[in-house]
């Protein structure tokens, strides 16, 4: 391999999501020098051969770097070989920090696809100052878990005619099974991340207090989420309020925009939709039971070993078949409330706009493209990003860049529109 530094390296390229990222990189990173990395050279070569055949390109020239999360020096070597690492190797609770450490120590940028709030909070607390010193941007949750929500809030703010006070996001998923032999919609790697998230769920409040210790002027009136199972006009799903990874990241982005840009923070909350009232009513209880099981080694091992049983078949070690994966649809409805004029003239918001974000293959296709676009934006528009580096959420990191315009372009399967 040439000693010249690569623009990007996709780490974890032989994993389920990593392969999809490599396939999309052929087009999205076509003007950049990029490579792939992992611990098994044979598997990495097979990935390039298989994807090359699929997309009709010879990928044998793509550099392969051997790096292992259990070998810190190999991660350092990888980080030194490129400007940015695209990390697809989870669960990030177990494997993410070592890669971040290598990138920050060597002044290399880092983006990942985590949906684990504790991990994202932890690396912000531990590595932000050092990343600023080293000139390294570390941006967690650059996949579906937060990019559509972060961009949706920014889009709503740009299209609201006055002051935006709050955004409530309603998320529904439509399962379209082309291949009825399997009903899996997610790979077990995602399930592992969920289990570790539940195991350490009690950490979130403590980490959030440490992370959000700065004093800011809280906006009024306060956003109060609907605590009951309910429906909204135009959608058939039954919704229940539930914090997601996107919720924590958007709130952190808005806080930093207030602190660093003196912008009024937009309050944000999320609801998840279910096909029946009873699923919406009992799902929080199931999550509570899962959190209890995840805290004890014996029951946690059962959860990890049998994802297809405990996820009712929606998550398996094989993952979704491609036809079903690409047919699954998601729909975000963002209700953005504020005041029409530039100065509030009433105690409660008087003007609402509604934004819809939709796509197919959101868990993997949107995640892959969003990750690559985030990496490309750092490479091409680093001068428009805040400061000289740091561990920061996507909404704050890409606030002044063209990422929103790219996501709205229609070229990457994501549709953002004002209703």
Tell me, rounded to a whole number, the average pLDDT: 93
Q: Give the terminus-to-terminus CA distance.
A: 51 Å
**β content, as a range?**
15-25%
Briefly note the structural class of the backbone.
alpha/beta
Instruction: List the total number of helices.
Output: 16
Low-confidence stretches: none
What is the tally of beta strands? 15
How many strands, which pairing sense, and closed or not: the largest β-sheet? 7 strands, parallel
Cα-atom radius of gyration: 21 Å
Major sheet: arrangement of strands? 3-2-1-4-5-6-14
Oligomer: single chain
Give the overall silhouette. globular
What proportion of the residues is helical, as a percent range?
40-55%
Please give a structural write-up:
With 419 residues, the protein is of the alpha/beta class. The protein has a seven-stranded parallel beta sheet, sandwiched between helices. The chain has a six-stranded mixed beta sheet with strand order 9-10-7-12-13-15. Strands 8-11 form a two-stranded parallel ribbon. Helix content is 45%, strand content 20%. The chain is globular, with a radius of gyration of 21 Å. The protein has helices at residues 16-28, 41-55, 72-80, 92-105, 117-134, 147-159, 188-199, 203-211, 245-261, 277-294, 297-305, 307-310, 322-327, 362-381, 394-397, 403-408; strands spanning 6-11, 34-38, 64-66, 82-87, 109-112, 137-139, 163-174, 186-187, 238-241, 267-274, 315-316, 329-339, 351-360, 390-391, 415-418. The chain starts with 5 loop residues before the first strand and ends with a strand.
